[in-house]
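Design request, tokens follow.
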């Protein structure tokens, strides 16, 4: 191949590369304008200690180098981030699935949160990363209520290395059992109790403990609502109608299918 032919071939190659780049940019821009799920649109800071990167969530690890459930750790300068698995946390799943501002679903750093049905501490630990921070320098507090002694044992162990967590062994249905640990109304409540009557319990808890401008999240499991007629969708609809008829204001219903089957998350506001 002579020099002129070689130059022509190189010019065509460069042109095709530029056209390919432009094609990629056009597709990306079109995807964004259509509301596509691009990495750039999905990434960003949700709160002080919560970050989204693509389809994954991360919290700012309050206890550096320590994992709770084999999470991934990554460094960003002096900050260590801990992966938050939406298949192991309904709150994480809701943060990914919400169609509104995800920052409205998490409490402010330094505030008090009430978690009813706290479990073994997976979600609690990520809440602590954001709400309390390392050494609880935000002076936040998480009141973690559960009926299971095994869960409380795990939460007590967790509170030993994460100050600001207050485990409470109590029956969620008996508000008087844990009310001494919540002397004032709180701005954020999460209820995750797999038993019948979840909606009525949520209404009672909010009426007693939710602050006027507060937000409450109800993780509703269809299979637990044995009293309701019909399939999962009918049970969710009945729950939505009951919440709408209460003194509370229903903000959003978030479908958690794919992360947690037979579950939705209701976002509730005090009127």
């Amino acid at each position: 191949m002579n020099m002129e032919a070689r130059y022509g071939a190189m010019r065509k190659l460069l042109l095709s590369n530029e056209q390919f780049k432009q094609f990629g940019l056009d597709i990306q821009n079109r995807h964004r304008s259509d509301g596509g799920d691009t990495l750039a649109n999905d990434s960003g800071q949700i709160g002080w200690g919560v970050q989204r990167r693509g389809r994954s969530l991360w919290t700012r690890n309050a206890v550096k180098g320590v994992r709770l459930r084999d999470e991934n750790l990554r460094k960003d300068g002096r900050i260590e981030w801990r992966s938050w698995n939406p298949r192991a946390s309904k709150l994480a799943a809701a943060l990914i699935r919400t169609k509104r501002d995800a920052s409205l679903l998490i409490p402010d750093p330094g505030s008090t949160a009430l978690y009813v049905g706290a479990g073994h501490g997976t979600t609690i630990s990520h809440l602590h990363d954001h709400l309390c921070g390392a050494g609880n320098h935000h002076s936040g507090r998480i009141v973690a209520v559960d009926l299971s002694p095994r869960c409380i044992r795990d939460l007590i162990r967790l509170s030993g290395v994460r100050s600001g967590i207050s485990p409470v062994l109590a029956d969620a249905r008996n508000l008087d059992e844990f009310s001494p640990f919540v002397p004032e109304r709180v701005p954020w409540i999460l209820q995750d109790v797999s038993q019948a009557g979840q909606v009525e319990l949520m209404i009672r808890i909010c009426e007693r403990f939710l602050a006027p401008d507060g937000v409450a999240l109800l993780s509703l499991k269809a299979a637990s609502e044995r009293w309701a007629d019909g399939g999962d969708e009918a049970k969710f609809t009945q729950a939505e109608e009951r919440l709408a008829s209460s003194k509370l204001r229903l903000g959003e219903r978030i479908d958690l299918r794919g992360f947690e089957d037979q579950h939705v998350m209701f976002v509730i506001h005090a009127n």
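Comment from the thread starter after seeing the answer: thanks! Residues 182 and 217 are 17 Å apart (CA to CA).
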